[in-house]
Amino acid sequence: MRRGRLRRTGEAAYGLLLLGRQVAMALLVLLVLVAGVWTSWGTAQHALLTKGKERGTFTVGSCHSSWCTGSFTADPAKGDDRRSVRIDATVTDGKGQRIPVVLKPGTTEAVRTDLPGLLYSWAPLGGALLLASILLAGALRLHRAAWVLGLAGVGVLGAAFLGL
């Protein structure tokens, strides 16, 4: 028995809606991952690519709610000493700590260049991996890929937490 034209059209439209949902969710997962990489790269590029940038040691002088300020002692022939430089408070242990850093070009903002600082700079990617894993498992039903992304996200965030 043959189905009617109206029913075939309805089934085709429903199939297109399902396909559209899958494509939209895949694009959302991709957007979340790209945003995580983009956000992480804003800080990680300075920690990874230090050639031609002012490198040295940051000594924590005082800390406020989100920033710590202190002095910057440049490595020989790598830049000039500065009296007032700031760094994110979450990457320091407090007053008196000495941290290897690089200065963002044209600013007085420092980025930690040792392993804990590098791991911390990739923390937004870890969060994006966790969020993407939830979207993959819930919306796209890709459970194995979700586990891989989720464990990678937990690994990045855990390493950053333990490193600092």
Structure description:
With 164 residues, the protein is of the alpha+beta class. The protein folds into two domains: 25-50 and 114-164; 53-112, OB fold (Dihydrolipoamide Acetyltransferase, E2P), CATH 2.40.50. The model has no long low-confidence stretch (mean pLDDT 91). It has helices at 5-48, 115-121, 123-138, 143-163; strands at residues 55-63, 67-74, 82-88, 98-103, 110-112. Helix 1 packs antiparallel against helix 3 (123-138) and helix 3 runs antiparallel to helix 4. The chain has a five-stranded antiparallel β-sheet with strand order 3-2-1-4-5. It starts with a helix and ends with a helix. The chain has four helices and five strands, in the order H-E-E-E-E-E-H-H-H.
Give a nutshell description of this structure.
54% of the residues lie in helices and 20% in strands.
Layout: helices, strands, pairs:
Blueprint: H1 5-48, E1 55-63, E2 67-74, E3 82-88, E4 98-103, E5 110-112, H2 115-121, H3 123-138, H4 143-163
Antiparallel strand pairs: 1-2, 1-4, 2-3, 4-5
Helix pairs in contact: 1-3, 2-4, 3-4
What key attributes describe this structure?
164 residues; alpha+beta; OB fold (Dihydrolipoamide Acetyltransferase, E2P); 2 domains; 54% helix
Rg over alpha carbons? 23 Å
Terminal Cα span: 69 Å
Number of helices: 4
Largest sheet: 5 strands, antiparallel
Q: Regions with pLDDT < 50 over 5+ consecutive residues?
A: none
- Strand numbers in spatial order across the main sheet: 3-2-1-4-5
Number of domains: 2
Encode the helix/strand succession as letters.
HEEEEEHHH
Helix/strand-derived category reads: alpha+beta
Rounded average pLDDT: 91
What proportion strand? 15-25%
The tally of beta strands, per DSSP, is 5
